[in-house]
Design brief:
Helix content: 25-40%
CATH architecture of the largest domain: 3-Layer(aba) Sandwich
Distance between the termini: 73 Å
Number of helices: 15
Strand content: 5-15%
Number of domains: 2
Shape: globular
Bound molecules: pyridoxal-5'-phosphate
CATH class of the largest domain: Alpha Beta
Order of helices and strands: HEHHEHEHEEHEHEEEHHHHHHEEHEEH
Amino acid sequence: MENESTKKWGFQVHQRFKTESAITLRAALTSLTENIDQNDSRPTIPLGHGDPSVFPSFRTANVVEDAIIDAVRSTKFNCYVPFFGILPARRAVADYLNRDLPYTLSPDDVYLTLGCKQAITVILSVLLRPGANILLPRPGWPYYETFTRQNNVEARLFDLLPEKGWEVDLDAVEALADKNTVAMVIINPGNPCGNVFTYQHLQKIAETARKLRIMVISDEVYDHLTFGNTPYVRMGVFGSTVPVITLGSISKRWIVPGWRLGWLVTCDPNGILQKSGVGFSLHLALNLSIDDICHVCCRNPEIYAPNFTCQVVDSIKEYINITSNPAATLIQGAVPQILEKTEEAFYSKIIDILRVAADICYNRIKEIPCIYCLNKPEGSMFVMVKLNPSLLEDINDDMEFCLKLAKEESVIVLPGIVVGMNNWLRITFAVEPSALEDGLGRIKAFYYRHAKK
Ligand SMILES: *Cc1c(COP(=O)(O)O)cnc(C)c1O
């Protein structure tokens, strides 16, 4: 105890938590919510979130609720399970994706995760070695960029083009990529844009990525939530052209984001993600097993990367084995019933609600001169609208617009800056239709109060 007074209390934390990594979505929504006037007797209209599960119209299907009850009662799902997920659940996810693919995935291609978010963490952790860079869409879902920057890896942003229905600027992708680029990320159907990529555009994405020898990470968390003219196509359809990592979850289509069940799937019929590059010859030269090599590589990336290429698939397994907890066994036990038994009627009911909501949104926005919607949303739950602050007396940008809107009208809308677009707004239309009408009416009143005379 002699030294007790010499060292002061104080702890150094990892630098990653001090980075000025962009404001997170949750932090922005929290500060907007705090800005709401407690004396406003009207209900708050939340048009900023991505979780409609609180609204009666968006209640999940009975068969989905029953799946959990059946899983509990069976007593088969009280145990610890393998880290990649139980076989029936992995098989159910493979079969679910196989309905939309021209080749057949096996359960071994599927890894179950804690929501889609952990699937993102897994693949980025595996790929983001020091010196690498990754291509991300702007606007996009902020977690990709935040996680990349936290790991001191460079995020290179390519634009989605509003004048082209939010298609990827593929010239920018080619210009941004170099030999250290590991992957490009797409989100389809889009968050925050509500766009749906056509078959032809996905094919062009695949061809570009193939030319650049990068894989495509396809975030399909809003899969099949489409209600416009563009049919839903999975990126994995082009898995023979380019290796695709498909990410998804039950959070959005089944409206149970709190259940935390997602997946990472390798859609790679040519087995490119199974092959190793330089590492392969090294393992022959050193007479080591491929497992040994992967261990060495994963533990000492600063020495071996970028000249050492591990098998991607082995690294995914290694990463999950070391770091992850699998999704709750109970939820895994319910997955086959959820994916196989949900009735078409449930899916089409949700699609109909979203279609009507998107229409309301699009038409009401036209009545508000300071915001402008270039593209009517065709999928997901969001629309991006352009804000014109020059029409407003005392509002200079999207953040100020949203803060004042929250304070004066108790309406929450996400400032575009959070998703990478200054002076745009992201509006969620996945709310009760009456609340949507009310919310957009308040935005209109807000505009007329602040309009330049
Ligand atoms: C909601 C969302 C996620 C996260 O999904 P969870 O299953 O809730 O983890 C990932 N990507 C996008 C684009 C999302 O909107």
